[in-house]
Specification:
Layout (H helix, E strand, L loop, with lengths): L4 H7 L4 E6 L4 H8 L5 E5 L7 H11 L5 E5 L5 H9 L4 E4 L5 H11 L14 H5 L3 H8 L1 E6 L2 H5 L1 H5 L6 E4 L1 H7 L11 H17 L2 E6 L2 H10 L3 E6 H18 L1
C-alpha cells in the first residue's frame, strides 16, 4: 500500500505543513498540490465543496506526493466511509466532544476487527494499491477536532481512545466556546491556555496534535510548542490575499 507521508513525518518527529481547499475545482486543487504542501485538506464542512467535486479534487492531488485529507461535515458514518472509499488518506471530523464521539469516529473509519467500516474501497484501492484492505487501518490517519469547552472537559477520555491518531484544534470555535473572539492566531488568553493544555495532554497520551493557523510565524511557534500538523492558508484566502497585494501595489503607484 502507498505509504502515508504524514505518518512518515511524525515517525521522525517532524511537522507536516497542511494547506486548505475550499474552492470546488480540480484545477485549483492541482495547482495547490504542485506547490509542495505535505498535505492538503479538502473542506466539506465550511467550504462550498460537495462529493461530486471532491472526487476529481482527490484525483488532481494524486498527481503529486501531497497527502489528501478531507474534513467531513459531521460525525456521520456514511460520509466518513465515502471519503475514505474515494481515496482520502486522512479524515478530520469536527465537534468531537466526548469519549463516545471519539469511539464512533474510530469505528466508522476502521475495518473489522478495529471498527465497523463497510467494505468498498472503489477508488481508494486505485490510489493506495491492491493491498489497501490489509493495511488501511494502519495507514489512514483519523483526526478528532477539539473545539469546545465540553471537549476540554472530556479531553483525557477522548485522547485515551485506542485508534485515534491525532486531534485537530479549531481555534475559532474553541475561542467562541470559551467566550473569546473567534480568531486563528492572536487568540485571547483563555483560548491560548486551552491550546497549550491540549498540546500538553496530547504529549502525555502520545497523540499527534494539529492546529489551524492564519500566519506562518504563529504556525512556527506552535510547531516549537509540539504541534506536528499545522495548517496555513486556504486556496480562497491565498487567492484573495494575492489579488489584494497586486492591486494595492498598482493603486499605490
Amino acid at each position: 500500500m502507498r505509504p502515508n507521508r504524514l505518518r512518515e513525518l511524525w515517525a521522525q518527529d517532524k511537522a507536516a505543513v497542511n494547506g486548505w481547499l475550499a474552492i470546488p475545482n480540480s484545477f485549483s486543487a492541482e495547482v495547490m498540490a504542485h506547490q509542495g504542501w505535505d498535505s492538503l485538506t479538502i473542506d466539506l464542512q465550511h467550504g462550498v465543496i460537495d462529493y461530486a467535486a471532491l472526487v476529481p479534487m482527490l484525483q488532481a492531488i494524486s498527481t503529486t506526493p501531497t497527502v489528501p485529507v478531507v474534513r467531513v461535515p459531521w460525525l456521520e458514518p456514511g460520509i466518513l466511509m465515502k471519503v475514505l472509499d474515494a481515496g482520502a488518506y486522512g479524515v478530520i471530523c469536527p465537534m468531537i466532544n466526548t469519549r463516545e464521539d471519539a469511539q464512533k469516529l474510530v469505528h466508522y473509519t476502521h475495518y473489522v476487527p478495529q471498527g465497523t467500516r463497510s467494505f468498498g474501497p472503489v477508488r481508494a484501492s486505485l490510489y493506495g494499491g491492491p493491498d489497501y484492505p490489509e493495511h488501511a487501518n494502519r495507514t489512514i490517519v483519523t483526526f478528532a477536532m477539539i473545539e469546545t469547552a465540553q471537549a476540554l472537559d472530556n479531553l483525557d477520555s477522548i485522547l485515551s481512545v485506542e485508534g485515534l491518531d491525532a486531534i485537530y484544534i479549531g481555534p475559532s470555535d474553541l475561542s467562541l466556546s470559551l467566550g473569546c473572539k473567534p480568531v486563528f492566531d492572536d487568540v485571547d488568553p483563555p483560548a491560548k491556555q486551552a491550546i497549550e493544555h491540549i498540546m500538553a495532554r496530547c504529549k502525555a497520551h502520545g497523540v499527534v496534535a494539529g492546529v489551524h493557523n492564519g500566519r506562518a510565524d504563529v504556525a512556527r511557534a506552535r510547531v516549537d510548542l509540539g504541534f506536528r500538523f499545522v495548517t496555513l492558508g486556504s486556496d480562497a484566502r491565498l487567492l484573495a490575499a494575492g489579488s489584494q497585494e497586486l492591486l494595492g501595489a498598482m493603486r499605490a503607484a
